[in-house]
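ESCALATION

Customer reports they have been waiting on this structure for their group meeting. Please prioritize. Original submission:
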Amino acid sequence: MGVVLQEIKESVAWVWLNRPRRLNAIDETMLAELRSAFEGLEQSETVRAVVLAGHGPAFSAGFDVAWMAGQDAETMADGLDGVRAVYEVIESCAQPLIAAVHGAAMGGGLLLALVADCRLASDTARFGAPEVKIGLFPSLNLVPRLERAVGVGAAKRMVLTGDSLDASESLRIRLVERVVPAEKLFDTAQSLAEQIAALPPSAVQLSKAAFAAARRPGYAAWEKVQFAACWRSPEREAAMRAFLKRSPPARSGN
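Update from on-call: job pushed to the front of the queue and completed.
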């Protein structure tokens, strides 16, 4: 059995981290299987939303320190580009990605949550960037992603102290969008994914892509091309016809 599992529920794919005895700590094998899973989902014509979750008591405790400790500085530095590429594959997945977080989401686990489009947390969740406590600093673009999510002040507090935040504090600083009881987390994630999956897929995927494109030069030109493509889509025509059938005719003023 792999350390990353997939499950399809209707048009929603669940990607499960599956090292529960190691609190889903991330190592080379998990990185390779995550990349393979998300590259496969990118090609799917039936999956319209994805949920990332963890088996066992934690979402992910972060990178496996036992694995890291055996590496020298050059090996770790040379490997950063490959690890960064895995997170970029996950972040650029065409389908909207929901992180359903329970228990610990630390370091590399926090980063897995940050590359998701939506973050749901159980009331047992804890989030942290504890790298300073083992003599490192957060790499792999965790710092700018965290700052975009929560603002520079909250990001610095998390990174410079290495302290973790509980679910309620994470909600307050907008690290997560919603906190639910632990027993309802996965059902809530499935419901949100189904809501997204029911919408016209090309419009949803372009809406997601717009957030990434907006951070690059030439967004206006990109937007114009993609808007035209979306307008030509049969999905758009069908959705507008359905909307007009449901809507009462506009009344003219006198």
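Sent to customer with the following note: The chain has a mean pLDDT of 95.
Escalation resolved.
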